[in-house]
Amino acid sequence: MKYIKLLLLLFVTNICFAQTAIIKQDINIKNMVNDVSAKNVEATVRKLVSFGTRHTLSDTTSKTTGIGAARNWIKSEFEKYSTESGGRLKVSFDTFIQPADGNRVPKDATLKNVLATLPGTDPTDDRIFIVSGHYDSRVSQANDAVSKAPGAVDDASGTATVMELARVMSKQKYSATIIFMAAVGEEQGLYGATHLAKKAKAEGWNVVAMITNDIVGNTYGEQTDLKDNRSVRVFSEGVPVTETKQEGGLRIAVGGENDSPAREFARYVKEVAERYVDQLEVKLIYRRDRYLRGGDHTAFSQEGFAAVRFTEMNENFNRQHQDVRVEKGVDYGDMPDFADYNYIQKVCRMNLSVLANIAKAPAAPVNVGIVTSDLTNNTTLKWEAPKSAKPAGYYILMRETTSPYWEKKIYVTENQVTLPYSKDNYFFAVQSVDAEGHESSIVFPKPVR
What we know:
Its main location: secreted. Residues 364-449 form the Fibronectin type-III domain. It contains 11 helices and 19 strands. It is an alpha/beta fold. It has 2 domains: 27-360, Zn peptidases (Aminopeptidase, 3-Layer(aba) Sandwich); 366-448, Immunoglobulins (Immunoglobulin-like, Sandwich). Strands 1-2-4-3-5-10-8-9 form an 8-stranded mixed β-sheet, sandwiched between helices. Helix 5 (152-169) crosses helix 11. 48% of the residues are buried.
């Protein structure tokens, strides 16, 4: 009887153990992750709040208040980081005239995004990654350009994230180019992001992925009474808004409605961020943005780029888009004392790990396809190497059709592989990988003969 009980105990114990997961970290990326400072983030948020209001249409001439003072200070900070990087970080205003829209822009206005570009080191690698936060703020009335609008979480938290990324990442080198963007005009209609997205499209930029950090500094939901400092939401669109009728037909035929470039990038974010950042759970939210709402990534999605949004788990609507006041003992307004700076630090580390890993990686394989010339229960995938630096190998990714993220990675060095799994029952994808383990973006295959 004791023997039977022992066997039963061993059996139960064994089935409760999960499979061992091996996590390989790049020590250089891990050191950068550790270099991200909550104190720096807090100092940046408080400095941005000190400008009184950063409303897009506020004062542009004062040196201490308004949107003009804020953007000049952001640019000066980027320039400090550039000096520390040996001048490799290129800082500029992205200036444009925003015509009156009859709504939140009552008259033509000169607006300025603040950009800090870190050029890639490989001249054959034209990939660009963009990370943004918007530096404008607002209160209850969207067109109130004079009232105190601290915007600590919405979105000094995102701007501080981008600035800390530029400070840390500009000291290192990457194969691809990274653009750090402090965007203007988000609260008036995504105008800064729209301007840059249209420019990128018109000039043929190879924007592989774009991240916007918008409202990433609060951990308490006032209505749900939930506090969560471990979870971050990543929003990604399913069916691309730019999809053609032909592309739509192919998507329906292969069942690819959950495998857009934005969804693949969101899955990439989850895997890599959780590899490097402790006490972090990336929540994949399968919609472009929150219910009936939008952000700066939307502008890039509308131009056909893979774009995602990072946002805190529980928004506090007593803070967001509120006049600063106290009513019935309740504080309203987006003040800096209510932000969680250790949480913003975690979000910044999440951004950094993803951007560093993918910018160090080789470009993705091209012409990735599933061979359909014969009916078979096997699946044959084939692809070509990218035109820039040749990868050390490739990962074939595999998941159940009901799984939200990739479950298996198979390392190969050849460019055509046959797997004993049916394309009817699983989804597949391919990504490049270098000798150090940095993975490229993920490519969902098309049917080929």
